[in-house]
Amino acid sequence: MNAPLVDMPEAAARRVEPGRFITFEGGEGAGKSTQARLLAAHLEQAGIRAIVTREPGGSPRAEALRSALLAGKAADLGPFGEAVLFGAARIDHIDTLIRPALAGGAWVVCDRFADSTRAYQGAAGKAKPELIAMLERIVVGPMRPDLTILLDLDPEAGLARARARGGDAAVDRFEGEQLAFHVALRSAFLEIAAKEPARVRIVDAALAPDEIADRIWTIVRDAFPAVLKQGAA
Ligand code: TYD
């Protein structure tokens, strides 16, 4: 027989519904950070607490690793060595920000996550796929995204956008890779989407930003219908 509600331990009665974990992925210049911010604003309008974060980074220790990684200081370690450092940053980000936020009921919108390691260090960087998969299991554990938005864009257009955005600043470690790297990267992301269609949804990043945001909102509402009523916001 079920215990009456008034007899429930206080902690259980106060138990909050965990938040959802949504990641954005794609090549350079696809507009992920803009769209991550717009999605979080949309969620907030719908009454959902949302946190925007990014990788590499998102926590003080991971941001320190980000500076080294994007400056190319780990490039000599080779693609798997770099993947291990992206993994170290990710462990700290999960432990100090993502897991506590989700447990507290906030939704976490993250600009890049483990698919970026699969695509950048794995497919395009040519680290052994079985090593990347093993590393992902160790680093991420059960912390898989509930939904991933892949912003897909022709690499030449993406690199042009990223360079225009960067102005006179020197290109970072990965923007500086040859076009062939970015072409391989795009195929890798599309392959991940093809393998995991329930989690990864592709959005055409060549569209206008407002149109992209509308499409993303439709995908998010469809993915979480019980939380986000069709008519909301
Ligand atoms: P960032 O300036 O955030 O680039 P973008 O705006 O394209 O997201 O730099 C992050 C870079 O780090 C980007 O080039 C992708 C790369 N990266 C990896 O190579 N592996 C990873 O696991 C992650 C998270 C990022």
What descriptive keywords fit this protein?
233 residues; alpha/beta; Rossmann fold; five-stranded parallel β-sheet; 9 helices; globular; binds thymidine-5'-diphosphate
Can you put this structure into words, describing what you see?
Helix 4 (78-103) packs parallel to helix 6. This protein starts with 9 loop residues before the first helix and ends in a 10-residue tail after the last helix. By secondary structure, it is of the alpha/beta class. It has one domain (23-223): P-loop containing nucleotide triphosphate hydrolases (Rossmann fold, 3-Layer(aba) Sandwich). The relative contact order is 0.18. Helix content is 52%, strand content 12%. Mean pLDDT is 92; it is low at 1-6. Residues 28, 32, 55-56, 70, 86, 112, 116-117, 120-121, 174 line the site of thymidine-5'-diphosphate.
